[in-house]
Amino acid sequence: MEKETVKKPVAAKPATPHAPREHKAPAVHAAHAPRAAVAHPKPKAVVVAVPAGRYTEAIGRRKTAVARVRITAGNGKVTVNNKDLKAYFTLPRLMAAAVAPLEQLNLRSNFDMSVHVSGGGIHAQADAIRHGLSQAIVLTDVQWKPRLRAMGYMTRDSRMVERKKYGLKKARRAPQWAKR
Predict the structure, then answer these.
(1) What is the mean pLDDT of residues 135-148?
(2) What angle do CA 137, 91, 104 make, to 5 degrees?
(3) What is the distance of C-alpha 94 from the center of its chain?
(4) How far is CA 6 from CA 3, 9, 11, 12, 33, in A?
(5) Number of domains the chain is built from
(6) 142 FRET partner, CA 20 to 30 A, in 71, 97, 165, 175?
(7) CATH number of 88's domain
(8) pLDDT for residue 91 is more than 90
(9) Looking at the domain assignment, is residue 39 inside a domain?
(10) What letter would DSSP give residue 71?
């Protein structure tokens, strides 16, 4: 008596030694589920016309320097602490840094600028004026904000002097070590 053998169909082996498994996604809690893409409307460019004799004011800061910048419609006159820009900032680099946002946007001849600045050194004051001027320009016309942000003028430089610690001579400088 002969046994009849029945051959069962054999599944083809995958090319890799480990067959890929079907992956079931775990149930996700509603709080962690990705949100549906919501189309947020783009902010409209709001043009705030500065009436004659009125000003737009903003505050700029750098280290411990604080600048209150007021811009008015005008022809490019700049005063810093009731002095002309050239009289206050003697270095051309500092003069250029203070009015850089107006120069970059070609608005120098459109605005007069009055600044009261205090604290910090002269370099920090120039950067504080630049920051405040950028903020004032954006308050006048929002369309300039992306360009000013790309130039880095809208961001307040948060670097400050590190405080002195007790037991040390400065913030990190330890007293000189003596072997004997």
Answers:
(1) 95
(2) 30
(3) 21
(4) 10, 10, 16, 18, 51
(5) 1
(6) 97
(7) 3.30.230.10
(8) yes
(9) no
(10) E
Q: Judging by beta carbons within 10 Å of its beta carbon (0-12, 13-18, 19+), is residue 79 exposed, middle or buried?
A: middle
- Tell me if residue 80 falls in helix, strand or coil: strand
Q: How far apart are CA 180 and CA 81, in angstroms?
A: 56
Identify whether 132 is part of a domain: yes
Is-above-0.85 flag for pTM?
no
pLDDT tier for residue 51 given thresholds of 50, 70 and 90: low
- Is residue 136 included in any domain, yes or no? yes
Q: Which residues contact 66 (CB under 8 A, 6 or more apart)?
A: 59, 60, 117, 118, 119, 128
**pLDDT: is 110 or 9 the higher one?**
110
* Residue 48 or residue 101, greater confidence: 101
Q: Which domain holds residue 112?
A: 56-151
Average pLDDT over the chain reads 84
Q: Mapping DSSP to helix (H, G, I), strand (E, B) and coil, where does residue 129 land? A: helix
% helix, strand, coil for the chain, step of 5: 25, 15, 60
User: What is the distance between the alpha carbons of residues 160 and 172, in angstroms, rounded to a whole number?
Assistant: 15
| Residues whose CB is less than 8 angstroms from the CB of residue 21 and which lie 6 or more positions away in sequence, other chains included | none
